[in-house]
UniProtKB/TrEMBL annotation:
InterPro entries assigned: AmpC-like, Beta-lactam-related, Beta-lactam/transpept-like, Peptidase_S12_Pab87-rel_C
Gene3D superfamilies, per database record: DD-peptidase/beta-lactamase superfamily
Domain Peptidase S12 Pab87-related C-terminal, chain residue ranges per copy: 411-511
The protein's name: Beta-lactamase-related domain-containing protein
Length: 514
């Protein structure tokens, strides 16, 4: 019988403590499942100035919610087999919620299936700008009905494009099929049977119980400066409609029960193989991606081949929180890491590699060693990237975003105050353009899921650079922005190149005030 060794040795403790400081992470909670045994440990602080982190602390689990949405869909498909209207993975979403699920392309509307939506191959890009301009209190149905106004960037079933909106649509459809809200279904069919008593479908639900609210870790963001930086509380960020895509609140101990179910396959969940079957190859690389020959997306899970082992994992990220869940079923091994910092995603990927290598033993493959060196080099580069972005010379940014910019620069057509006002997108998303104290325009929306705040720096004519202020803990890459001034001399609309998958194409907002 194998001896099960506690993974939290001095070497690992040192790596965690060093990583907390290097990546500006207040605290982290970790659970490791190995051959039916669960080990857990917490480090750092749950809340400043001195509340220690524990393994009972709750976090926003963010996109690790997607695995539960896929699992619930699998169970609802199974439940429907004997019903008058059975569904399967090939069922088009539009056949379930025809009035709500309408895409900008007629073919895509008619043919996008549950499988397409849950494997990020619908052709719809992320459109994350909705988080900056939308309504944090909008309903799930309202969110799904905005899809008709969002342009696709690829033909369906040709490319992996991560989409929270597609998971929200599936959650909405599953509520109609099952006759109950997705959160209620998960609690009754998965969380309850697994004993996940500290798992909730929203922050609001968790905060209704005083003893649970007291366990919630505070999420923080780090504002990097030329010398040092400071923490900001990110607890106001909230996207109420993102239920099926990222709403779960939980702890590493509760998630370890979920991991054990996925490894042992002895609980309420059925159809494990269909959930883990790769559907869409991923060719883009994120700095936190593991050094593997390939990776793909299944249904709510990324699929990797790590040192000859099938690894299924998912990350979660939300302002103030980062999560990683990974399982290697053939080794009966799983890990859960949750931290209360936006930038912790880099630390979580490093620690997950540390734990997996501890399980698999020393690597003798020179290629793996080289890949690991490149992996850590990419991560090191990220440490300075935020500071470099925030302090990059504005003239350099202008030339990069507008390579054919006129010289000398053309002045804007109107006095700056005449560009101010409220601008709205057909989805209902909106932004307010104001004249800032320091003499230039600023775009704001304090009621968005993630509060919008962008400085508009004039480039030439009606073209501007949209740039995150240096005081923001969630900096965006600088974006090209443009105003359209009509023949009456009125700033009629403003466009920003929010969506990278659309290239230079801008998302346009029409002026709605006089």
């Amino acid at each position: 019988m194998a001896i099960i060794v506690d993974p939290f040795d001095q070497d690992f403790d040192t790596a965690v403590e060093r990583g907390l400081e290097e990546w500006k992470v207040p605290g982290i909670s970790i659970a490791v499942v190995r051959d039916g045994h669960t080990f857990s440990k917490a480090y750092g602080l749950a809340t400043f100035p001195n509340k220690p982190m524990t393994t009972d602390n709750l976090f926003s689990a963010a996109s690790t919610t997607k695995a539960f949405t896929a699992a619930a869909t699998s169970m609802i498909i199974e439940d429907s087999k004997d019903s008058p209207s059975p569904i399967n993975w090939d069922t088009p979403l539009a056949s379930i919620i025809p009035e709500d699920f309408v895409l900008s392309d007629e073919y895509a509307t008619a043919h996008t299936t549950l499988e397409d939506a849950l494997s990020h191959r619908s052709g719809l890009p992320g459109h994350g700008w909705g988080l900056l301009c939308g309504d944090r209190d909008g309903s799930v149905r309202e969110n799904v009905r905005t899809l008709r106004y969002l342009p696709l960037s690829e033909p369906p079933r040709t490319k992996l494009q991560y989409s929270n909106q597609m998971f929200i649509a599936v959650g909405h459809a599953m509520q109609k099929v099952s006759g109950q809200p997705l959160g209620s279904f998960l609690k009754k069919r998965i969380w309850g049977p697994l004993g996940m008593e500290q798992t909730f479908f929203s922050k609001e639900e968790a905060r209704e119980i005083p003893k649970i609210a007291a366990k919630m870790a505070t999420g923080y963001g780090w504002v990097a400066e030329k010398t040092g930086g400071h923490w900001v509380d990110e607890s106001k960020a909230n996207w109420r409609a993102n239920t099926a895509g990222g709403s779960i609140v939980s702890s590493v101990l509760d998630y370890s029960r979920w991991v054990r179910e996925l490894i042992d396959r002895g609980g309420p969940l059925k159809g494990h193989d269909s959930l883990f079957k790769p559907r869409t190859l991923c060719f883009d690389q994120d700095p936190t991606d593991l050094p593997t020959p390939y990776h793909a997306y299944a249904l709510g899970w990324f699929v990797w081949m790590y040192r000859g082992q099938h690894l299924y994992s998912h990350t979660g990220g939300w302002p103030g929180f980062s999560t990683f869940v990974g399982i290697i079923p053939d080794k009966r091994f799983g890990i859960v890491l949750m931290a209360n910092s936006t930038s912790a995603r880099f630390l979580l990927s490093q620690l997950s590699v540390h734990l997996m290598d501890k399980l698999l033993g020393p690597a003798s493959d020179p290629l793996h060693e080289r890949n690991m060196a490149e992996f850590f080099a990419r991560q090191e580069k990220e440490k300075t990237k935020l500071v470099e972005y925030q302090n990059e010379d504005i003239e350099v940014i202008k030339k990069r975003l507008f390579p054919s910019i006129a010289c000398p620069r053309v002045p804007h057509a109107l006095p700056l105050e005449r560009y101010t006002g409220v601008y709205k997108h057909p989805t209902g998303s909106w932004m307010k353009v104001v004249l800032a104290e320091y003499g230039h325009l600023s775009i704001q929306n304090s009621h968005a899921p993630i509060a919008l705040n962008l400085d508009l720096i004039h480039a030439s004519g009606e073209f501007f650079v949209a740039k995150t202020p240096s005081s923001n803990s969630l900096p965006l890459d600088p974006l090209p922005a443009e105003f359209y001034v009509n023949t009456s001399g009125k700033a009629q609309r403003v466009g920003l190149a929010f969506e990278p998958a659309l290239g230079k194409e801008k998302i346009w907002f029409e002026r709605v005030d006089s």
